[in-house]
């Protein structure tokens, strides 16, 4: 299987990098044979005390081998560690014993020992008795000799660099999982070939089928023209045209990848620009497919749909396309039958007898087939950036993630949306991708120059450029436009001035900025809700139109929605009211449906509603393709305000050329795009207490001051954007040295301290840079940090998933308020059906774990029959009493929680 993966699954780029890492450039067949050798020897550690895990198997051992049973069974170790310890001796028997081969043999041993996703220290060792005596050693050499001979007796490579060994480990893990599916193993056991050569031949014949059934076969797209490929009317804009016409020349004869940064205002078609760039970059650098990473599940869900349509239009219906985030399997794109996977039998830790491993072993099939590890391996993957960042955290199977990403073009949308902690992790990932020559595309509307400069330099450092030389360079990006930096030469190329001017002119817009000083909790004319109500009267009482109200907290969004619903349309969202609510505290199925409704109502193609007011949180500020006649927003850091403003008159140019949906133009009151900022700081006010630590006080104060300084009440888009972003988010020393005790100085100090702490924490937690790894255990060098739940790609409060259930008056607990769906229970075999698990999980809501810390653990525990399920066992269940057909709030600590059908989860 590993040989087949080399032939058809690995991209040309990956094969070249592995061969170069073995100093076998130009000799791919030799490199292929070494990969096969690692795969063929991956379970050599099972020739050890592992054999005595099963009495039925071990009773047929010869007297000489079986005589060591007692001493070999005293202590148990993983067979992966046993393989690491015994591999050097085995390889010596194959002729890998010369002094110059020693380091290579040690690296091969590290790969063998890492095939279950975690690299171990050679010096940690195991009890020698576990490996057995001389007879066992001879048996290991005999097994290895047969594998070696079957591969044509490959010679040791001159070197084996760590970065290449990580990719080889990923190949071995994937090959192991593919051939270890229970159904396939039983099929082979029913007809074992008596001659080993025939067995090997049959295995080679089966490999293509197994790869295809896993959805990992490669598909060659039939590339279409721009409009046909993306279903867009009209011609590409100047930015997109420049990529199609100019990027290929900028890439030139590059051989080691490059990093491509696109900067443009929201709504400028950056996603399609990225996909056009991917065409050029993949062809130039030998990658297959792409990984499109976004900041949130909601934006990933939407982009998955757009990519799926683009692939279908280009004969990609058979291409592997996955949605990659922790709740992806709940998305309606996946059917229940897609999730009902057969077991993968890899003996992963089972022989050690550690109870803590059972949950992980039980989850392996789901994780491989539809969970957070296997989907990245598909030719095309769309998902949250977190799934990619796991590749540079010290977690199990990070090598598999690096394998998955290194064969594709890597696209990061909304590159500005990540905090300093995540930016460091992203930089570390770009460093590894630079070492692998992977083409990278970064997209952003509001990325500070200091951040883009750091990311580009991380990539180039991974590609081999010296830190000192890079420190003397800067990589300023044009706005709007693009910057391409070649990985090998470091040469920087920009969009041509003519095309940049065309793009700026084509998307030129005067955005009206209105700052409304507001107060929270008061009842006068400046009260926040009263101001919003006044601003929206033209929408609700006049000729209609569309408005987007963006709130900083879910609680503010719920209160705002209730006020506007009461004032303008007493019908609920579910009843088709003109006021809609969208936030992250709805059950998953409700949130998915509401997101779809909002996109349909405010999307490019329509139909446009006569009047619509959408009240939402930050979930709408990234990658959701919305167009409103006016945007009203709580004060937020300036880059985010510009993102929210990007939902105002977003499709005006397109509609001007091609006509408004249903012929319904803008209402007369909407004379131009307008962003209204509700500013509680203006006129000497303070940030509301309920905002907590949503945003940095320093950024809010600086944004408020910057908005107050805008002359004429207008921002020129795109001309003023980068300057405003730098004024608030750039590397400015905005400290008042003459008044260090002022509130603004204290806010600046707190902001700088927090950012420094986040960067330091990420730097300590992330794996080393690609060229700094000496031993592979450096990738798992934090004790205990073994799997995803032990580390985080984001800083902040821990979260749990909450299921809001209903206790009916007869005592039955149901999933629905009406009492028609009982909480599902495990069957007589102790298992839950996939459809039952989906039904439960789709109704869960992510909440902060500290909300429930004072709750009685038994009161929020899941049913006992769920405790053996790897997902359901971790849920918290809010059991809401039903009285008179209504659900009552449940007191948890000093607050109450209740799921409202229209407003989502209420916390009062």
UniProtKB/TrEMBL annotation:
Q: What is its EC number?
A: 3.1.-.-, 3.6.4.-
* Source taxon at top rank: Bacteria
In terms of Pfam families, this protein maps to:
Cas3-like_C_2, Cas3_C, Cas3_HD
- Show the CDD domains listed in the entry: Cas3''_I, DEXHc_cas3
Provide the GO biological process annotations. Answer: defense response to virus
Amino-acid biosynthesis as UniProt keyword:
no
UniProt xrefs under InterPro entries: Cas3-like_dom, Cas3_C, CRISPR-assoc_Cas3_HD, CRISPR-assoc_Cas3_HD_sf, DEAD_box_RNA_helicases, Helicase_C-like, Helicase_Cas3_CRISPR-ass_core, P-loop_NTPase
Q: Which residues form the Helicase C-terminal domain?
A: 531-711
The UniProt GO MF terms for this protein read:
ATP binding; endonuclease activity; hydrolase activity; metal ion binding; RNA binding; RNA helicase activity
Segments forming domain HD Cas3-type:
11-178
Q: Which UniProt keywords apply?
A: Antiviral defense, ATP-binding, Endonuclease, Helicase, Hydrolase, Metal-binding, Nuclease, Nucleotide-binding
What family is it from? In the N-terminal section; belongs to the CRISPR-associated nuclease Cas3-HD family.
Query: What name does this protein carry?
Result: CRISPR-associated endonuclease/helicase Cas3
Q: Which organism is it from?
A: Streptomyces griseomycini
